[in-house]
Write a structure and sequence with these properties.
The chain is built from six helices and three strands. With 158 residues, it is mostly helical. The protein has two domains: 42 residues; 106 residues, no CATH class. The chain has a three-stranded antiparallel β-sheet. Strand 2 and strand 3 form a beta hairpin. Helix 1 crosses helix 2. The chain is elongated, with a radius of gyration of 20 Å.
Amino acid sequence: MNIFLLNLLVAVLWAALWGSFTLFQLSAGFVLGFLVLWLLQPLFGVQDKYFLRAFRVVRLMLFFVYDLAVSSIRVAYDVLTPTDYSNPKIIKMPLDVKSDIEILLVTNLISLTPGTLSLDVTPDRKTLLVHAMFADDPDAVIASLKQGTERMVKEVFE
């Protein structure tokens, strides 16, 4: 049984009951369906990874929004103040993620965060070249990226 499709069906039924197929009603139905299916999970007799993956996706999105806000403030502060705090470097970050979609997601999330830019992935797909605006300690930048973005992306696809 595909829990995600069942959740979509509950969302559509919810919107049909309200007689309004708006984004708000479909979203409300989806969230309500998710909660109901999560509560009824023991009745299905299986532990589905759908709920864990959904939690991890939401956690990744919240982490990215937080990281985006903090990085934006840091870059804006550096641009708007007379003192230049940046120390740009190109660093080599070893990759733990293996699949194409994981590498794509990690590189895009890094590039979307102000102050960092993914430049290239080596042909063996084991190293990512990253331009970091604030790289006083390149090892700390690598550790931060690996413990944050890469770890969370890897957990989503486990």
